[in-house]
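Run log, item B.
One chain of 540 residues. Sequence copied directly from the ordering sheet:
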Amino acid sequence: MFITIVSFIAFTSLVAIISYMVTRKDKMTTSDAYFLGGRSLTAWVIAGSLMLTNLSTEHLIGLNGDAFKHTIAVMAWETTAALAMVLTALYFLPKYLKSGFVTIPQYLSERYDDSTRVIATLLFLFSYIVAILPVVLLFGAAGVESLFDVSENLGISYSQSIWILVWGIGTLGSLYAIFGGLKAVAISDTINGLGFLIVGLMVPVLALMYIGDGDMFAGFSEVFHEEHEKFDITGDEPGSFLPFGVLFTGMIVNQIFFWCTNQSIIQRALGAKNLAEGQKGVLIAAGFKLIGPLIIVLPGVIAFHMFKGVLGPEDYLMAYPMLVKTVLPSALVGFFAAVMVGAVLSTFNSVLNSSATLFSQGIYMAIFNKEATGRQLVFSGRVISIILALAAMIAAPLINTDGSLYNYLQKINATFFGPMLAVIMLGFLTKKVSAKAAKIGLLGGPVAFYLLTTTFDAEIQSFLMNVFNTPDQIHFLHMLAFVFVLTVVVMLVVSKFYPAEKTYVQKYTHDVDITPWKYAKHAGITISVITVMFYILLAQ
């Protein structure tokens, strides 16, 4: 236990020291410096930060838990993300950097009007505080509790341990975001990302060796043959947890929004020193996404093979932590815990930094102080970061953990994803869609999704099951696609009667060089082909 704690403290301290040394001379007095790292981020820093901003304990524990409970079909959340990231690199990022956008709502302001920007900013902030921030903290706290048995060692209850850990992790993550800005967040993400990759791959390797008495390939052969049904990547069994069909409907909408237009993700690429570095960073991260299932899905299947007689379906959140404690030496358990906490901090502080950016640019400057200086913008961002961090730390221990927390996170996010993507995409692809239509889409779309999937869920499901003659409920991702299409249609109809009053013409601000990376298309095609091959090879 002593070695575990020492290795945990050592790696966590190393990340903090390196982050401080790299950023200690940076002046956080301008919005570009604080919110975009001075537009100086290079490819590997962008890639590391993208990977760790997304990958956290809701993936390590949540997706592995879902694989334990269901099949590897849950890896679709990772593999299809690579395709969306290719789209980011080749289509969206050149447009963002050409106009020097700091936030996605800033684009909506230029394309539509200021009130559209305010509505979009509020929706982003609401989704962060309701879903991402508290869920990430809860998963992180549950993971540390599982690895260290904090409640037992301190002689306290499980719920008390979760409260303590949530506040400890939340406070540490807040310090990075509030005082260090995007660059400190990105540097710490990159270091933690390297550790995450190393120790994340060690877990399935050591577990398979454990099963195969030192022979990894023998261990994999045993797991693959004895748990063969869990290796169906299509997940197309009756009542599937993630039906194959959603890959062609709501999954497309979800992934394009999250990786191409979501502020907390795209902000890393917006801080690129030039377009070429930004494209390389995004595509490198896409390549890592294809390795992701080995870290966040395969261990769940291995854990099922090892512990199916010990853990029941209701214990799915315990599967991955139990696997880690079983196969990793004590010194590496501490290192792993530090990496896992680092992943939590990464997602948490990245979302806080994006929240600060959104609030200062889209609320404070747009409504309260149109002539705000760089210092005033940074100060307002820090204040809102503190408020959101406190709210998340209060809410996290109160979340109900029954069912799939990862699905809970995705379903809450889907409320906003479809309508927001419709507004952004129509802004890029058409010239006549109006600000009135955009506001109707932003406000009406989430209401429609909520009514369909929550308020009238039973009635809607019963009707659709009769229409399609199926005993299985319609997956919420199909509903996401429907709301996206509905929002597009409504916006186009509204714009027929209330067309745009001005034609948007994108301007080149010359903030960064927008010469593309010469191998961007080649890399994008390669990543896309590999992704498709996963489904061809693993379909049953």
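Observations after the first pass:
- The chain has a mean pLDDT of 84.
- Residues 141 and 164 are 8 Å apart (CA to CA).
Flagged for discussion on Thursday.
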